UniProtKB/TrEMBL annotation:
<dbReference type="GO" id="GO:0005739">
    <property type="term" value="C:mitochondrion"/>
</dbReference>
<dbReference type="Pfam" id="PF01687">
    <property type="entry name" value="Flavokinase"/>
</dbReference>
<comment type="function">
    <text>Catalyzes the phosphorylation of riboflavin (vitamin B2) to form flavin mononucleotide (FMN) coenzyme.</text>
</comment>
<keyword id="KW-0418">Kinase</keyword>
<keyword id="KW-0460">Magnesium</keyword>
<feature type="domain" description="Riboflavin kinase">
    <location>
        <begin position="18"/>
        <end position="176"/>
    </location>
</feature>
<dbReference type="InterPro" id="IPR023465">
    <property type="entry name" value="Riboflavin_kinase_dom_sf"/>
</dbReference>
<keyword id="KW-0067">ATP-binding</keyword>
<comment type="pathway">
    <text>Cofactor biosynthesis; FMN biosynthesis; FMN from riboflavin (ATP route): step 1/1.</text>
</comment>
<dbReference type="InterPro" id="IPR015865">
    <property type="entry name" value="Riboflavin_kinase_bac/euk"/>
</dbReference>
<dbReference type="GO" id="GO:0009231">
    <property type="term" value="P:riboflavin biosynthetic process"/>
</dbReference>
<keyword id="KW-0288">FMN</keyword>
<feature type="region of interest" description="Disordered">
    <location>
        <begin position="1"/>
        <end position="25"/>
    </location>
</feature>
<keyword id="KW-0808">Transferase</keyword>
<keyword id="KW-0862">Zinc</keyword>
<dbReference type="GO" id="GO:0005524">
    <property type="term" value="F:ATP binding"/>
</dbReference>
<keyword id="KW-0547">Nucleotide-binding</keyword>
Length: 208
């Protein structure tokens, strides 16, 4: 069960990703368990879990990072000239609430940090999560930049959804910091202060 204590607003060091991050995973978007959108109202992009074999010590839990989709098959709001890098929150594991038997990678893609956050608390109504058009089969590249929390079981669907809402906000606030937002600014390769290592990661994200 989730500990009954306030959540930290950010995760990871302010200076930027530290070992073992960044972690790179990729693959085509595949059908998941079908619960994210239908039961929880949280659209997720699943990719094959095969790549996790390269990271045998990676804990199950919730992470944050950035993703890009192959622009030849998917464009974000009409931007089809190059891949758009977007913030993401993701779960790696078995989802104890649903007692999955197979490990999965479930990625929720969020809007740009410059756009309004649908998961920010603005009223007491139902939480709305960002939704993209269907892109099954589209190659996806994921760069994991930090760890948020372990997997928990929950007493209700509502409690699970609320924790995922908070996960989204923690991910967004974590990625706003200079040591992380540089992974999103793919059009700024010539910017002073952006090291070659970050530029290499950004090229890996977008060069399909």
């Amino acid at each position: 069960m989730r500990p009954d204590r306030p959540r930290d607003p950010v995760a990871g060091p302010d200076s930027g990703p530290e070992a073992p991050y960044p972690i790179q995973l990729s693959g085509p978007v595949i059908k998941g368990f079908g619960r994210g959108s239908k039961e929880l109202g949280i659209p997720t992009a699943n990719i094959p879990a095969d790549g996790l074999s390269e990271y045998p010590d990676l804990d199950v839990g919730v992470y944050y990072g950035v993703v890009a989709l192959d622009p030849r098959q998917f464009s974000y709001e009409g931007e089809n000239a190059s891949a758009t890098v977007l913030p993401a929150v993701l779960s790696i594991g078995y989802n104890p609430f649903y007692k999955n038997k197979m490990k999965s990678i479930e990625i929720h893609i969020m809007p740009r940090l410059t756009e309004p956050s649908p998961t920010a608390q603005v009223d007491s109504g139902p939480t709305h999560f960002h939704k993209l058009p269907d892109f099954y089969g589209t190659p996806l590249r994921l760069l994991i930049l930090g760890y948020i929390r372990p997997e928990y079981d929950y007493v209700s669907v509502e409690a699970l959804v609320e924790d995922i809402r908070v996960d989204c906000e923690v991910a967004r606030q974590s990625l706003r910091r200079p040591g992380y937002v540089c992974y999103l600014n793919v059009d700024a390769d010539a910017d002073e202060g952006v090291g070659e290592k970050v530029q290499r990661w950004r090229r890996w994200l977008t060069e399909f």
